[in-house]
Amino acid sequence: MPTRSPTRVMLRDELVGFARSKVMIVLWVVLPILAIAAYLLLPQEITRSRGLGGLSATAFVGFLMSSVAGTVAALMVAVDIVSERNRKVYELFVIRPIRRETIIWAKFLGVFACVTVACVVSLGLGIAVDAVRGRAPGGDELYDIVKSLVSLIGVIAMASAVGVVFGVMSRTILVAVILVLYVGQNLTIVPMLPVYLGWLPNQFWLIMLITAVLTGLLVYGASVMFRRSEL
Amino acid sequence: MPPLVQLENVRKVYYGRAVLNDLSLEIPEGEVFGYIGPNGAGKTTTLKILAGLVTKFEGSVRVGGNDVARDRDKAHGLIGFMPQSCGFQSWRTVQSALDSLGELSGVPAELRAKRIPALLERFRLLDARHKKVKDLSGGMTQKLGLIQALLHEPKLLVLDEPLEGLDPPSRNLLKEIIRERQQAGTTVLFSSHILSDVEDVADRVGILNNGKIATSGSIRALVTDFGLPLEIGLELSVAPGNLGYLDELGTVTQHRPDEWRIRLVDGTPSDPVVHAVIEKTLAAGGKIRKVGLVEPNLDDLFAQYIERAHAN
């Protein structure tokens, strides 16, 4: 049987590695359960009323995930890259006939996919809770949820890319964490700057396109830096 | 036939200091080459350049005729490299680490299924195949590093301090494997500080100093070239009160409480001196456990080389 391409092997391994990490178990299982538990403990006047004050489980979980997913993704990937490089894990990959850039792209895609799954699971759980409580979203509400999810995925992608850049740049985990927390957090709003500055119209899909392009550029830049670095 | 490994005028500078300085080296196919030198001489840097870990350097480095900078994939396909310390992803088991690295080296699944257990068995790691790599001892991780370098049966094995941290049976096993690989046509380049082991397996050694190969050749040839003096070793079970008579035969040094060495003056035949040592020791009331000619070895050669390098 012929061997798989190095890119597929690296991506598969990164997905398995992140999926097995304790952080992912927390994100996939513990966090959604905690989010739903917290929602159910909220005062009824917040959750019951269907008007302005009414807060659905989907919205609550989505809000919670959007506040942590990007940071978690960026920290996970940055710390992982620094730690593996310092433990000389990459030496055993780089000496094989694979492109160095593959390692970085696989790392990015691995963490991006895993954190995205965590968000989808959480939102799905929120929708399920709302459905059980007789408040299943439909029509426009469902479209808004999809838009929120896409926007959340955009944030995760951008944050993962920023994490990859800082992971490649940093020599110690401490520096990587500081860069992610103090600089990375602010970088994720860059795609919206042209809209805030009035250079581009405020269109959701346009912002998502800018996010995708910037994410690609950041990961490409990180992979070039990694290719040129000496291990 | 061109040599399998060719380094020409390689120069590598770290922070303004030339770690390698016009280093040139050729290793023919099928040779076991021992790479030795004082700490910081540039051994690891050389091996890292060959393996493609250090990419910015001057000069030319070729493996099997492929330039490691330009024909990277072709060159790397020929090399099995074991770094000084091997790191594996912490979530991996021994089996999964080897399987993945083998796959990345292009070893088909059916071959991996045969080779991985065979090598694990050989290094007495088969029982640990489902253990997480992070739970292995230092010696076991070292063995795993060796196995990953051997998995794709490369034409060139580059091993950076492979004997470090291994217990004596594992060291013997590695030496046995190096000899076997050599018989199968593999070229081996390895660095080590354990000179007796280098002497056991290397066809040739190269002494690296100040960023270039100071001398290279077979150990015997180097010993002759260096003009290392012969010595008579004398081990006594009962030493006479006064050993002054030995000074008449050559320069005497005490190696252990019960062992002395008499360095012969250049050109002095050894047999008459051995007889004289025996006769005079017995006459002085000493009891001899062992006496004989001590051939200079790689340790002596290296010590002598360092001594001369410092003197210059």
Largest sheet of chain A: none
Radius of gyration of chain A: 19 Å
What overall geometry of chain A do the principal axes of the alpha carbons give? globular
Note the beta-strand portion of chain A: under 5%
Q: Which structural class matches the secondary elements of chain B?
A: alpha/beta
Structural class of chain A: mainly alpha
Total helical segments of chain B: 10
Number of H/I helices of chain A: 10
Q: Give the topology string of chain A: H per helix, E per strand.
A: HHHHHHHHHH
The counted number of beta strands of chain B is 14
Structure, briefly:
The complex is a heterodimer of chains A (231) and B (312). By secondary structure, chain A is an all-alpha fold.
SSE layout and pairings?
The complex is a heterodimer of chains A (231) and B (312).
Chain A: H1 6-20, H2 22-41, H3 44-47, H4 57-86, H5 89-94, H6 100-132, H7 140-169, H8 173-187, H9 193-196, H10 204-228
Chain B: E1 5-14, E2 17-27, E3 32-36, H1 43-51, E4 58-63, E5 66-67, H2 72-78, E6 79-82, H3 94-104, H4 109-122, H5 138-150, E7 156-160, H6 168-183, E8 187-191, H7 195-201, E9 204-209, E10 212-217, H8 219-226, E11 231-238, E12 251-256, E13 259-263, H9 270-283, E14 287-294, H10 298-311
Parallel strand pairs in B: 3-8, 3-9, 6-7, 7-8
Antiparallel strand pairs in B: 1-2, 1-4, 4-5, 9-10, 11-13, 11-14, 12-13
